[in-house]
Amino acid sequence: MFAEIIGAISGFMYSYLLIVMLIGVGLYYTFRTRLIQARLLGETIRVILEKPVGKGEHAVSSFQALMVSTASRVGTGNIIGISTAICLGGYGAVFWMWVIAVVGGASAFIESTLAQIYKKRGEHGSYGGPAYYIEAALGSRALAVIFSISLIATYGVGFNMLCAYNLQSTFIAYSFYDPATTPWIIGAVLAVLVGWCLLGGGKRVIKATSTLVPIMGVIYISVAFVLTMMHIDLLPGVLGNIFSEAFDFQAIFSGLAGSCMMYGIKRGLYSNEAGVGSAPNAAAAADVSHPVKQGLVQMLSVFIDTLLICTATAFMCLSSGVAPVPELAGAPYVQEALAASMGANAKAFITVSMVLFAFTTLLGNLYYVDNCFAYILQRLPGKTFVLTYRVIACVVIFIGAGSSMGLMWDLADVLMGCMAIINLPVICILGGPALRALDDYVAQRDAGKNPVFKAASVGITQKLDYWQK
Questions:
Q1: Average pLDDT of the chain?
Q2: 20 to 30 Å CA-CA from 208: which of 89, 116, 364, 428?
Q3: pLDDT tens digits, 335-349
Q4: Beta bridge partners of 122
């Protein structure tokens, strides 16, 4: 009964409401920023390499903040999620996944720039996110608390349960897999490992993800590229199917809830999180001289996730010659597609990839949860509180591993949708300061300066804690 209710809510949210909101807000800011996704792409690459402005052990660089947000974005959804979208929605889901990434890049820029503008300064470094800009700029702590609770439910429960399920599902291909016991064993091992890492605090999270995410991404994309090239003769047909199915509007609107558009947008949003309000929590931690720098960096994170890693998965599978059918949705399709090229090595490659993707995702997710608890409590949580909720988080991971696929995907989609429904209207209302900050940044850069932010230059008269010198 619970699974049916969650499924119905998910169907309604993604059939109409969120499709309009996500594409509408993304296109609005694409035009307002004058196609920032292409116009400042080169500048984005440059600012990633800058050292943090702050000094000391708590200073976080743009690159480290990028890795934390990418750790959460790049996860099991980049493999299992894309497979599910293709098998259930068809080839056209890939195109709509690209659309939500390109237009969503502008939304990601705005929300992360706002997080930088309204962030706070603390003894352990800077911090912030949607809750902080909602309270500071809208003057509504109540809405900010509701958003924070929504984020905690999404990342601490929904996403982590789904991540654990997706990880254990890749072991189905092994002969030792027993549906009655293996998921619980894998869930227990994963929960213990995550709990051990979390006891080291937020700095360990940043260090771990800074090391694992680049290695994980490069290896995965490299293998996907090689396997796609092995079947290069099939690629034109794959691209033809992607575009032909994407623009089959009669099929899309005759059954929107199960269409390629809906699955592409669902899985694209789950993967890159543009406009959801999660990445700004990591963006606020970066010590940069101008908020726009981190807005650009987080925009790039969306592209890395979807246009590189998700596309790598899609091409690797679709060019294998194995047809995507509903019966193979999830890990089975990826494993069969890779087996066509790698043989017995396919199982090991997917297992290793999923372990790395899942581990960094779980760490990145709980880093966001830490920030929201601190906001709600208006102080850093005490040791007893932190220990208690992290034990609960590990139990949730354990339970998710043994749950069902349909319920886990629908629950994650609904919780994520609730965050987007709050955050997207907020960034539409508050976009002015971010757009003026962009103009200020470009003007300083064009004058040959390293842009430095001043609140008065973008029309903000209130005292900004972090930027007050």
A1: 82
A2: 116
A3: 888 888 777 777 777
A4: 125
Which residues, 6 or more positions from 237, have their beta carbon under 8 angstroms from its beta carbon? none
Name 241's Cβ contacts closer than 8 Å, sequence gap at least 6. 91, 92, 318
In whole angstroms, what is the distance from residue 400 CA to residue 98 CA? 29
Do 401 and 184 meet the contact criterion of CB atoms below 8 Å apart?
yes
In contact, 41 and 337? CB cutoff 8 Å: no
What is each CA distance from 21 to 60, 72, 312, in whole angstroms?
Answer: 32, 22, 27
pLDDT score for 74: 63
- 339 contacts: CB under 8 Å, gap ≥ 6: 346, 347
Residue 86 confidence class, pLDDT cut points 50, 70, 90: confident
Q: Which residues contact 191 (CB under 8 A, 6 or more apart)?
A: 164, 394, 395, 397, 398
Would you state the pLDDT for residue 370? 81
Cross-strand pairs, 125: 122
Whether pLDDT at 427 is above 90: yes
Alpha-carbon torsion (440, 441, 446, 452), positive or negative: positive
| pTM, rounded to two decimals | 0.85
